[in-house]
Amino acid sequence: MSSIPFYAKKFVSGINIEEAFAVVERLNDKKICVTLDLLGENISEKQQAIKFVDEYDILLKKISEKKLDCYVSIKLTMLGLDIDFDFCYNNLSQIMRIADHYNIRVALDMEGSDYTERTIVIYERAAKEFKNIEIVLQAYLVRTEDDVKRILAANGRVRLCKGAYKEPPEKAIKKMSQIVENYKKLIQKLLLEGQRICIASHDDDIIDFCIEFIEKNNIPKDRYEFQMLYGMREKTWSRIREKGHNMTIYVPYGDQWQAYYARRLAERKENVFFVLKNLFKS
Q1: Which of 81, 110, 116, 128 could be joined to 136 by an S-S link, Cβ 3.0–4.6 Å?
Q2: 109 is known as an active-site residue
Q3: pLDDT tens, 87-120?
Q4: Which domains does the chain have, with CATH numbers?
Q5: Which of 109, 157, 196, 268 is catalytic?
């Protein structure tokens, strides 16, 4: 398909780098940072992974050339995590060498719980070699409190989100009120002890809590940022930025948009209502 249909265009910036960069430049004009996500995951052939590595290499170089306020997010299954651990790490290392050369951040997106441990192990190893690596943790997983300690012991650079994958009750907190409370508990420790903390949430309760905590504890602005998904609550982005806080928008692009769009609705049924609600919420 050569273009994004109207119903997905709100959430996916485009098919190619040029379309994605047009969105990045518009957001940069509003003093908003972007993390770009080239769509793709769970590949089964090494050549597919190598192709993604090449695309990320080009992406990083073009971000540097255009001097954009932008970094990138990557899923390790698109680099071959399902194929071979060392193959995946070598692919990530190639990307990280270029990212460090241009001083561009790279965030390891967190996938389902079957990948959590392997993703953290790769992050811990990469954090010893590369300066610009960071990772995503999910507040609804039971294990995340222990994982926070591991990230703080590595380089303390993390994005905390609630979590969206469908998980069994022995692995994940199910009640939203309890997820929110766990998020608040974890984010306090991260903001006090972390090096760069990304507060990824559309929840007003969490956003207000974090702003109050940041101001009360005089957390330096270069140690945190708020994050939201492209297409969600644009007026809220602007309000947070106008209050003097760093704001980053997660912007996906690529020809595999359909899988991304469908999965985001299907991962948890709550997401369907969340997306519909946020179509009309600012």
Answers
A1: 110
A2: yes
A3: 999 999 999 999 999 999 999 999 999 999 999 9
A4: 18-278 (3.20.20.220)
A5: 109
